[in-house]
Amino acid sequence: MSRALKKLPVSAVSGKLFRTGRVLSPVALILVRYGEIGLKGTPVRRRFEHLLVADLQKALAYHGAAHSVSTTRGRIFVEVDGPEEAGQALRRVFGITSFSPVEEVPAELPSIAAAAVEAADMGPGESFAIRASRTGSHAFTSQEVAVVAGQAVVDATGAPVNLDHPDREIFVEVREQRAFVFTQKIPGPGGLPYGSQGRVVAIIEDEEGLQAAWLMMRRGCTIIGVCPPALAPRVKNLYPW
Fold it and tell me: Which domains does the chain have, with CATH numbers?
């Protein structure tokens, strides 16, 4: 079996996903990103987005996380009770490339700077960088966002700026009249939403067959698994996906 196949996450995901330096609110806003779906034509993209949202909601319900979901072009926003439970759910949703717990503020430089200072969680001597991006029309540029927010963090913490190899990164994503500040990008499985492609019969006779079935699921196929009884406990690892 190839080294890449051995690393596929077919076993249970466990452990804390979010950094514990900051205490997350019991109600958190999570920004969800998708990749390949955004390259599709409008009718296909909309259908895939609807499938992804439905899969996401099923996963959150499975993990017992109360939630509400809203969408915009290229992003999905999840307001959720229990961010850790939500994080475990989102790690298993095909089509999600990454997600981040975010702080939402108005798309104004003073508000963004204040949120960046609040997000800064650096130890003694640690450096940082501001990574800013924008979508929409604003009275400021992405560079100005980075400069103003970075100066605010320097003034508040005394931490040095290192744009090439920072110890910490603070991300700012401005979308129209909303701005989102965050420090983590947690990877998802990527691929296409489950069920967006056809049905496939997967004959699973060994670990390599199990990995191949997972890869087909990641490409959006609905799997009909056939396996010997001895392998059935391992095949059950595919169920939460």
Answer: 24-107+177-193 (3.30.70.1510), 199-238 (no CATH)
